[in-house]
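S2.1 Query sequence (Nucleotide sugar dehydrogenase)
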Amino acid sequence: MNSNNSKIAVIGLGYVGLPLAVEFGKKRDVVGFDINPKRIAELRVGRDHTLETTPEELKAASRLAFSSDLADLRDCEIFIVTVPTPIDNANRPDLTPLIKASETVGKVMPAGAIVIYESTVYPGATEEVCVPVLEKHSGQKFNVDFFCGYSPERINPGDKVNTLTKIKKITSGSTPKVAQIVDRLYAEIITAGTYRASSIKVAEAAKVIENTQRDLNIALVNELSVIFDRLGIDTLDVLEAAGSKWNFLPFRPGLVGGHCIGVDPYYLTHKAEEVGYHPQVILAGRRINDNMARYVARNTIKHMLRNGMDVPRCRVGVLGITFKENCPDIRNSKIVDMVREFETWGVQVVVADPWADSAEVAHEYGLQLGAVDSEHLVDALVVAVGHNEYRQTNPAALRAMCRGTKPVLADVKSLFDRHHAAEAGFTVFRL
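Output structure tokens follow.
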């Protein structure tokens, strides 16, 4: 294989795969492959519903073709797998998409192929899970007939500043020579540079601890917010005061959803338990963060009851359902947990979100998006996501969405001045 001009296949065209295919498609022949024909159809006409790429960027990738036909992969020599790695209902790793993608690649890859995985996994997954699947479906032998690499994705959905090419890329390979090839490959498109890890397993571990560390830091401030609420202290006031020291880390409390931070720690703890170690700190952080959405709902209910509301006959508006601001991604949205908690109290919940796709929300969660405004009044309001549309409003405008004399405002992201909100007539709760 001449790796300098080898044709690339990117398997999976979501938030990770599409930007990667676009960047390589500016320099090499690339097949962007996805099993969803609707996804392929929209990309062929220059539309990306994830908003990670623009029509102009898609057009600039002049050497990129999109396909859901397996036959179009047969002349590729480098395969980059970017499929999701979710967890199941018991918080165990679900490697089904990764295994299916490996089966697909194994059926079409030629001798000498390099298969690079970007999906977040536990240390050892590439060589212990994916390689046997590739060997089985190709009839080839690992590190003799084909080779592997691992270069973990670091995409931040919705971030238009820290984009793919501006984030340093970790690379690795199954042999020293392949590690060099993989590193040179990514260096073609990553202007921020690359970091070659000593092994695939090290690269896998580096990725999974990035999000585990962030998860634990958020869990700490979430637990602090619970303590400070009981002490009658505003969490943001405390964090701003503590932040006057140069080395204080500026984490804020919030809901931890999405495809990475709320999922990846479970991959690490799964592998730890497999080798006989039972993690304590990591899982404690996960329990705290997984409970925060219900905590917000219960505290909102508590304030409603204190204000004399007949809760089962009340209407609560929830602004935002995506897992983060200014992004249409609804995967693993913790807002859904909040809605379910409200519903157990008999509350009528109306969810609004200008960024989310209503059909996708209905399909994934069985929820119908609605309207919360001056014509569709509520008794309590939860501003759950920091979309620009909400940041640009003010407490007076929010008050116009509420009926009654003592509405409750749960400001999850602390977007508004709590004193101004109180002056507008709200009973304010925030993390």
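The first helix runs from residue 17 to 24. The mean pLDDT is 94.
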